[in-house]
Amino acid sequence: MRKRTLSFWEIWNMSFGFLGIQFGFALQNANTSRIFETLGAKVEDIPILWIAAPVTGLVIQPIIGYFSDRTWTKLGRRRPYFLAGAILSSIALFIMPNSPTLWVAAGTLWMMDASINISMEPFRAFVGDNLPDRQRTLGFAMQSFFIGIGAVVGSLLPYMFTNWFGISNTAPQGVIPESVKWSFYVGGVVFLCAVLWTVIRSKEYSPEELKAFEEASKKEKVERAEVVDKSKNIRNQFITGLGMAIVGLIVSFLIFENGLTKELYILFIGLVIAGVLFMLVSFLRKKQVRNGFTIIITDMLNMPTAMKQLAWVQFFSWFALFSMWIYTTPAVTGHVFGTNDTTSELYNDAADWVTVMFTVYNGVAAAVAFLLPVLARRTSNKVTHLLALTVGGIGLISIYFLRDKTGLLLAMIGVGVAWASILSIPYAMLSGALPSAKMGYYMGVFNFFIVIPQIVAATILGFLVKELFNGEPVYALIVGGFSMILSGLLTLRVKTNKRINIDEQS
């Protein structure tokens, strides 16, 4: 028994919800630093205010993936999570621009990012559930297309409201401009409506059908995954956890002794906590305890080889993206336009231009989403990803040398090519290596390597900007550019299943 080939419009419907998700994500990325600065945040404090978002994702993603693998309701397997996340995200989008204080805004960012993750992660597994191998790249490309379109319009909304509808983009000190508020209101409505479209217009295979597919075509993968889980050396798991805890404690002590930036504690105390969890699970497994907690932690050690190799690719590419999302606004307003006065017209015009820049890179991503398979056919997944990330890295680095609006848009073209590749090719390279019975869980774990670099960026970039870069955030973009190029080089060492290469599915 095999999964049937879906029509173009069926794939369109099952991916349409990403349009709304990316509306929310784009508004968050393009405007959160602006909101934080308006409410009084110092530029070196912005990364730590962003930290709630990736920390929340780190916890939620594997849990949502694990439970969505085991869910079946009248709405299906993944769709209940789409809908719940959309409702919560829409509420957060209405609250965010009305935050009266900085800490309310930071807390709302926490809620918003958690809610977006509840919707987003099952969408990745949705492709693996519903599409045969030969159509998975098309599914991820379709998601990338909607991500690009949603981000274009979402990023452009403040500029549109100001320049097309005459809504003010300035406000008294400590007040969010009306153009930003209305952008978030529209984003909340679009988010919910787009996800509802996918919930209503899409179907899912029943648990019985999924089981039949596994037995017919992927039984060996499931069995192999289970054998690895049972035979994993419990002692090695304990030693791994102990090592993580010791390293975290030692570095935390050095941070304390040398009076380094307190944000660095987050990363290494987190390492201590992760080590303790590994040791606890090794103890429970020794006692023959098997539950959701032990499975979630243990399966992290049993990741497929391709997933472990792609983890490094994801780490450095998302580190670069997070540096861009945090620091593009202060870098452009300060370094390019020469102002840090959040109440001035020049600052707000420059901040609006950042939303246009983000619109360009997302628009480019949407435009090239279906062109990447063409390049991959002539080269390979690895070479395509390397070229895309190199172009993106050069784009980020070039911002330091630019002094006009047009040049900034040209820099974003390279970033857009990289963004399109980041959203599709790693998932296409990974999908064939995952057991279908754990598709949601491993897609959630794979996103650790999106979240962890964000935590690293949030903890060290503020320190670097303050202590090494003399408070100049544009240098964080240069670091991000080189990180993106390194990510592309690391792609060359990934061993993938040739059967599901992007060039063979398109």
TrEMBL record:
Q: Which domain of life is it from?
A: Bacteria
Instruction: Give a Pfam family name.
Output: MFS_1
Instruction: Indicate yes or no for the key word S-adenosyl-L-methionine.
Output: no
Q: What is its main location?
A: membrane
Molecular function, one GO term: transmembrane transporter activity
The membrane topology noted for this protein in its Swiss-Prot or TrEMBL record is: Multi-pass membrane protein
- Keywords, comma-separated and alphabetical: Membrane, Transmembrane, Transmembrane helix, Transport
One GO cellular component term noted in the UniProt record for this chain: membrane
UniProt subcellular location: Membrane
InterPro entries from the UniProt entry: MFS, MFS_trans_sf
Q: What is this protein called?
A: Putative maltose transporter MalT
Species annotation: Christiangramia flava JLT2011
